[in-house]
Amino acid sequence: xxxDTIGEPLSKVGDSLSRVDGRLKVTGGAKYSGEYKVPGLxxxxxxxxxxxxxxxxxxxxxxxxxAPGVLAVITPFNAPxxxxxxxxxxxxxxxxxxxxDNQVHFNGHPIALVVAETFExxxxxxxxxxxxxxxxPFETDFHKNFDKGVVPNEGKYKDYVRGEADAYKNxxxxxxxxxxxxxxxxxxxxxxxxxxxxxxxxKVTLYTKSxxxxxxxxxxANAFGLDPANVQINSRFVGGAFGSSLRTWxxxxxxxxxxxxVKRPVKLTLTREQMFTLVGYRPLTIQKIxxxxxxDGKLVGITHESHSQTAVYEEFTENAVNVSRFLYAxxxxxTRYKVVPLNxxxxxxxxxxxxxxxxxxxxxxLDELSYKLNIDPIELRLRNYTYTDPERNLPWSSKFLxxxxxxxxxxxxWDKRAATPGQQRDGxxxxxxxxxxxxxxxxxxxxxxxxKLLPDGTINIQSATSDIGPGTGTSMxxxxxxxxxxxxxxxxxxxxxxxxPVAPTQGGSQTVSSVGSAVHDGCVAFKQKLNTLAGLPADSxxxxxxxxxxxxxxxxxxxxxxESQGGEEAKKYSMYSFSAHFAQVYVHPLTGQVKVKxxxxxxxxxKIVNHKTASSQMIGGAVGGIGxxxxxxxxxxxxxxxxxxxxxxxxxxxVNADIPDVEAIFIDKPDPIINPLGTKGIxxxxxxxxxxxxxxxxxxxxxxxxxxxxxxxxxxx
Length: 717
Ligand code: MOS
Known about the structure:
By secondary structure, this protein is of the alpha+beta class. The protein is 23% helix and 25% strand. It is globular, with a radius of gyration of 27 Å. The model is unreliable at 1-6 (pLDDT under 50).
């Protein structure tokens, strides 16, 4: 890996380039969506319902309306109609339709929006509203309602069966266990915020926290019956999202609705508590895994069932069980999936959506099986290694998971692991080692990028992609520099603007594969164009004077917009990124305190474009995984249907003291199929497998198998 060097700009794919926007971020120069001081700005504050199911029968808003600085109080009784919310709308808005009716589906369901000259005045006025409800019985208790699980999508979700269902039951060695994950909130540092302002009746601009400005543009256009070209979305910097900004939420529509009503810009910021109910979360899930194996460790059957919670007003599904269909060779495999509708906010994809949940269960069960068989957990995985995708019966486009096992085992010191649990000590502390693996689909979507040569010889590239943290601009600059053959510091990359050429939402670990391919292909085409203008053969690699070409041809600038997408060939392969996470943990026998001492994350994600930002992303995913396994849990008080820990004091995200030395290792072999760069994506697999690695290490250290996350000290003493 090449190091960052001073004075010599890096310019090759595979280098370690510092973030091109790093300086802006650390100096406060980076502006987030809540920081735009639009002239005439007003402030919106949502009023949450205090019942958990029922209807709002009356609201007395007089005092609020008369309070100083108040411009409007929007309620179900006076809200201007949102066209996309109405029956028969051309493109109906999915999900919650705020203020469109007087229903309350969950505690915290917004029932009013107060707009005032200042945030404080809006907040105060919101307290003056008197609401009368007709409360109905509600259900928030997942466990109590477990049996009310339904097959999602009105039965369109089919059970998966390969070979014989539940074949594990007849195998000589059997593991059959339930694994539970609590609801886990995305909790990005930056609160969700939207600033909206109209220009006349049919044009609107938003500064909003978004993982996809094109998606946001379409959603707002649909909601208000506008031409998407008249909806401008800006989301240049995003302070973390993890999936919570993949979609446009009802409060964003409400901000636009309010701005139209008061004819002034409105900024609506969610409170941290509202972040627990209004922008999704990883749903509470109970999974049953059945594994059956022969004495040699070969799997006979895998059964994976999952029940997860969803909302009564909108169904959310995820791929929790899918990993069990393809990660290991087993002649028999079957999965079942149900959702349990409750009076809660709707869940959303959260980093490693589905797979992170599923791999915790599968990889824990496999660990349990390894002890029953007395076979080393890595050896057990090797005996069930599969060189083709057993679910789809296709070859992998590339798979180097074996190499991940090997390198991870070396780096964590697997040879020091005791085969019998509870045997190893370092002073007072019990010591253990664990492995957890995962996979996530390697996707590539159609994407565009515009390459522009400016008179000073520098290149500007624009694409309507996002950067929720991974350093997208930095990777794109490196791809362009390498392809054009010029230093990275001669290139700028702009994103987060819906007027730029179309790009997919930043989700599903697909950005480098999708947008990177457009940048790559665009720069190849651009170089050919320049070569031709310079009188060279189109494919010449000779250096060219960029600024000189413009002068010579008397051009102010030169630009090209490139669209790029995967080919038919890709359909003949199964494409995944793979991960193997290794943990070394210390557990204190008296206090139950768990210290993750070391975490090694080894991934096969194809070619790595920028080692520095990729490593940072892997560390971030590991932090998320440690939160999942040790600290994070949104606790519902089922008497009231309300979370009791909706804040950062009581909902524990890991802090620096919880995070060990995390080492990220990349196999770094290009995938020959997926795209011209050979990249597969790391955003999700950085987390998928971490929870199982730590839980398995805790078992190895203590002999205690904890199947309910988070593994808090009380579960270990
Ligand atoms: Mo990610 S859950 O695809 O934002």
